[in-house]
Design a protein that fits this description.
This protein has 12 helices and 13 strands. The chain is α/β, with parallel strands linked by helices.
Length: 415
């Protein structure tokens, strides 16, 4: 006979802790972009397991992201004898739990230094065990960012994109129309029977003819291919302000929004600096800033190649930048650079690429994180050529503007 033995529960704090609260507390560390100032909490920490232990120690000692009962238990651990040993044990259990529940994955680095494969500058230390943030963690962080942004906008729910066109479908939101071949056969029974009765009068049997058939109308909902063009030049963390980490969080939130609420849409991510490259959205947490210059033209070229492969009703580029174009890829592969003023060669070639976007019916919406004269001039010209929108914003309000624009983009036509 099978028996179950019950024992006293001793209260494993690592099992009781909410992993979502822990990830939220670690978000600044996990999404570090290379910004350094005297107030950055984790500025000297890298993405190694030893540094993750140190970050966990600081979070547990501060306790700001946990509820009152959890803070009391953490204070008890610190106050008891051999506090360091108990805290170390708790940290190891949390690390094991994060790995077991697939929030992080770790790997031994053998080389003395590896360059980042997704843009920016990332240095590795020989022999250290590094970890990667998994898709599960990125999905959660994107959801949390999205919820915070939508909360600040006063939104409680959202659905698929609507247009000003009508179609036939299951969800009814308008008057009936006469059935035409190819329509979804969602019959408006009342209108169909009324048409037959008005023709034949009240009587049985009631003969229905093809012209009597009426179907419900619903709003035609379109699909969109979006490329987020993200500036990762060094100016994004200069001048005493981190502009890149908020931009990364917005890209993650936009990815979560599209995947969960707009499954017919697509989202791609392109980084541009001295050059430009496409990276998977899942790798956005690993990206840091660098190199120095802003090759907007190359970013637009990469974005257009991505959009050319998409078969969507609408295509758009969402460009997030804080600087005017200052670099250009020449036909022989060399990179021409000039950071002083608006270089005529760089600007003319970049605007020619904007014109190609216009001819391909690609909308360019620009979010400016700075307001210097050269950038404003350039962005106004881009908006005029592509009939797009330009926003002056800050890292704090970037997500609100971007998500407002994305959710409203398909509800109206911009002429």
């Amino acid at each position: 006979m099978k028996r179950i033995r019950y024992t006293k529960y001793n209260g494993d704090l690592a099992s009781e802790m909410d992993m979502e609260d822990l990830l939220q507390a670690l978000s600044d560390y996990l999404l570090d972009s290379g910004f350094r100032d005297g107030f950055t909490r984790f500025q000297e920490l890298d993405h190694t397991l030893d540094d993750l232990r140190e970050a966990l120690r600081r979070i547990l000692e501060e306790g700001h992201f946990f509820d009152e009962s959890m803070r009391q238990k953490l204070d008890e651990i610190s106050a008891e004898g051999k506090a360091e040993g108990k805290m170390d044990e708790l940290i190891e259990k949390l690390l094991n739990r994060m790995q077991q529940e697939n929030y992080i994955s770790s790997a031994q680095q053998q080389g003395p230094g590896n360059a980042s494969q997704v843009g920016g500058q990332v240095g590795d230390v020989q022999g250290e065990v590094r970890f990667e943030v998994t898709d599960k963690s990125l999905d959660f962080l994107g959801f949390k960012t999205l919820r915070d942004l939508l909360g600040s906008l006063g939104k409680s729910s959202f659905g698929r994109h609507d247009t000003h066109h009508w179609a036939t479908g299951i969800e009814t939101s308008g008057a009936s129309q006469r059935y035409q071949f190819g329509d979804v056969l969602n019959l408006d029974t009342t209108t169909t029977l009324s048409s037959a009765i008005s023709r034949e009068g009240i009587g049985l049997p009631l003969n229905l003819e093809y012209d009597d058939l009426h179907v419900h109308q619903c709003e035609f909902q379109s699909s969109c291919a979006t490329v987020v063009l993200l500036d990762c030049s060094h100016s994004m963390i200069l001048y005493g302000e981190d502009r890149f980490t908020p931009a990364k969080k917005v890209a993650m939130a936009l990815s979560h929004l599209i995947r969960t609420q707009y499954p017919g849409d697509s989202l791609s991510l392109v980084l541009f600096h001295d050059s430009a490259e496409e990276i998977p959205v899942s790798q956005i947490a690993r990206v840091k800033v660098g190199p120095w210059y802003t090759n907007t033209r190359e970013g637009l070229r990469v974005a257009q190649r991505i959009l050319a492969r998409q078969r969507k009703d609408m295509k758009q580029i969402v460009m997030i930048t804080d600087g005017k174009p200052s670099a250009l890829t020449l036909p022989d592969g060399r990179i021409y650079k000039n950071a002083f003023g608006l270089d005529p060669l760089v600007v003319s070639e970049t605007l020619e690429e904007v014109a190609r976007c216009k001819r391909s019916n690609v909308m360019i919406n620009t979010f400016m994180l700075a307001s210097d004269y050269g950038l404003v001039q350039f962005v106004h010209k881009v908006s005029e050529m592509c009939r797009g929108k330009a926003y002056f914003t800050t890292p704090a309000t970037l997500g609100e503007y971007l998500l407002m624009d994305y959710m409203q983009h398909k509800s109206k036509t911009i002429h």
